[in-house]
Amino acid sequence: RERYHGVMNSVAFRKSSSFTENTLSTLAWLRQGERAAADIVCAPWNPAAFKEALFEIRPLMRQNSPGHFLPRLRTICAEAGVAVVVAKAPQGCRASGAARMPPGDRAIIQLSFRYLSDDHFWFTFFHESGHLVLHGENHLFLENGSGIMESEEAEANQFAERMLIPDEFSDELTRVKPYQRDVIRFAFKAGTSPGIVVGQMQHRKLLGENRLNFLKRRYNWKELSRDPSVVSSIPSLTP
């Protein structure tokens, strides 16, 4: 509580449902992210370089296995001053991701793989990236599915949507037929994955929540835990 006094009083944290559910579990998750980030060799934070790096990261969305894309994702981000940490959320912490600038010269993007699907993971990554690019380094942004749509959250959502489906394909997305073949064809054209297309179609009410979910890539913690940099276990804390 002493270490995170400022965080606990921040607007982003106070408006999070995790604050009322299990504050200490969320703080433990954030602290574990800081500890893991300290072990990452990272260049100084460079906003312009990070913004450019995101376009180098986009093709990673088409890779099936986290064992393939996570090391490259971390390397690209570290070169621009962002330490990317994957840490499983402990019981009581509902966070999907967080972005912040702790004391020092690096930013942190922390991801929990909460829903273990490609559409949610990549949306969360680009959402957190949007906070760093658009909103600077002086806040903690914590995403936990609370449904709160402040202006900064809406801007980060729009940023993520444009990274997943570039603007030049946005209109065409509305005309994609809700069939496997059409979704796969559009995903290849837009440089993204079929699961991400399904997720965005569902989000934009172009497709029912129960349709084509088999196109989403599913992950599991057994696979993720093979990566030694992934924090797969954090003790839960009860206030």
Summarize the structure in words.
- The chain has 239 residues and is α+β, with helices and mostly antiparallel strands.
- The protein is built from eleven helices and four strands; from the N terminus they run αααααβββαβααααα.
- A four-stranded mixed beta sheet has the order 1-3-2-4, sandwiched between helices.
- α4 (47-57) packs antiparallel against α5.
- The longest helix has 22 residues, at 17-38.
- The chain is globular, with a radius of gyration of 17 Å.
- It starts with a helix and ends in a 15-residue tail after the last helix.
- The relative contact order is 0.17.
- The mean pLDDT is 88.
List keywords for this structure.
239 residues, alpha+beta, 11 helices, 4 strands, 50% helix, globular
Please summarize the sheet with the most strands. 4 strands, mixed
Strand order of the largest sheet: 1-3-2-4
Q: Give the fraction of residues assigned to helices.
A: 40-55%
Provide mean pLDDT, rounded: 88
Secondary-structure element string = HHHHHEEEHEHHHHH
Bulk shape:
globular
The count of strands amounts to 4
Ranges where pLDDT stays below 50 over 5 or more residues in a row are: none
The number of helical elements comes to 11
Distance between the termini: 10 Å
Concise description?
This protein has 239 residues and is of the alpha+beta class. It has helices at residues 5-8, 11-14, 17-38, 47-57, 66-79, 118-135, 151-164, 167-173, 180-190, 194-203, 221-224; strands at 82-86, 97-100, 107-111, 141-143.
